[in-house]
């Protein structure tokens, strides 16, 4: 686990390092090098489609979902206070390119988490509805909740529901109770955030001791994710979902293990930590 002052070299790809065997001498293999979160900033293989999901949600999903027999994991999303879905569209289209279905609540008041959970329930219903493009295509047991600012607090509130398997609070407000989360959580702060200060987000991470939790501080990021900081965030969110919902073992090393990819990306992340359950 990296302290706030620890520095290491940036890992830009997944590498495998092994120790050479020496006759009559037992030498332990060196650990595999970690994967950089920036690997997941690249677009995935699918084109993205945007559609309405009833009056309350906007959906993003792979364009070939009807012809692809795969069940697709889901991300439910909450906007910041007064924000719109369009402001986060770069993230949603990126996730759809990686095969995820996103249900973003059409509101700037999603702190209760209920608006987000309604998106999950809508997709679960569509999964069994005759004639739906999502029929048989939704992995109903693989749902993540994420959001920004008030929506980040809403993600924590939604994360208490059994439908949600993992939670990603981004610069979260005070909504929700982190001790009610029942799956892994990734807390993100901005180093230069004056709206939801980094120390506050880290405090919520530290209080979340009943499940595996990871904390990342985006280097130089304000609350509004200016410039390149939004791409660092997109890569990390994608990597988190790739491991926790899709079982991608390369993505696991972005967050877990000694010298994780998040630890090593000093140009993108100014701090990272893991609690005792995050192994």
TrEMBL record:
Keywords: Signal. Gene3D superfamilies: alpha/beta hydrolase (3.40.50.1820). InterPro entries: AB_hydrolase_fold (IPR029058), PET_hydrolase/cutinase-like (IPR041127), TAT_signal (IPR006311). Coiled coil: none annotated. Residues 1-28 form the signal peptide. PANTHER family: CARBOXYLESTERASE TYPE B DOMAIN-CONTAINING PROTEIN, CHLOROPHYLLASE-2, CHLOROPLASTIC. This is Acetylxylan esterase.
């Amino acid at each position: 686990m990296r302290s706030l002052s620890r520095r290491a070299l940036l890992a830009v790809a997944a590498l495998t390092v092994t120790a050479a065997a020496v006759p009559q001498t037992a030498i332990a293999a060196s650990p595999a090098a970690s994967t950089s979160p920036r690997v997941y900033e690249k677009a995935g293989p699918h084109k993205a489609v945007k559609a309405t999901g009833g009056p309350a949600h906007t959906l993003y999903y792979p364009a070939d979902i009807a012809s692809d027999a795969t069940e697709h994991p889901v991300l439910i999303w909450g906007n910041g206070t007064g924000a719109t879905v369009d402001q986060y569209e770069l993230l949603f289209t990126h996730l759809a390119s990686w095969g995820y279905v996103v249900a973003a609540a059409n509101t700037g008041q999603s702190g209760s988490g209920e608006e987000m959970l309604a998106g999950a329930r809508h997709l679960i219903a569509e999964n069994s509805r005759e004639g739906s493009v999502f029929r048989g295509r939704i992995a109903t047991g693989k749902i993540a909740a994420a959001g920004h600012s008030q929506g980040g607090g809403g993600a924590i509130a939604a994360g208490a529901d059994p439908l949600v398997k993992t939670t990603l609070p981004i610069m979260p407000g005070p909504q929700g109770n982190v001790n009610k989360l029942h799956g892994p959580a990734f807390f993100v702060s901005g180093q230069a955030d004056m709206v939801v200060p980094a120390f506050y987000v880290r405090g919520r991470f530290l209080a979340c001791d009943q499940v595996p939790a990871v904390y990342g501080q985006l280097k130089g990021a304000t609350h509004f994710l200016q410039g390149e900081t939004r791409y660092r965030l997109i890569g990390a969110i994608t990597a988190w979902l790739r491991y926790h919902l899709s079982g991608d073992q390369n993505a696991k090393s972005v967050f877990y293990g000694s010298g994780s990819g998040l630890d090593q990306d000093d140009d993108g992340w100014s701090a990272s930590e893991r609690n005792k359950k995050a192994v």
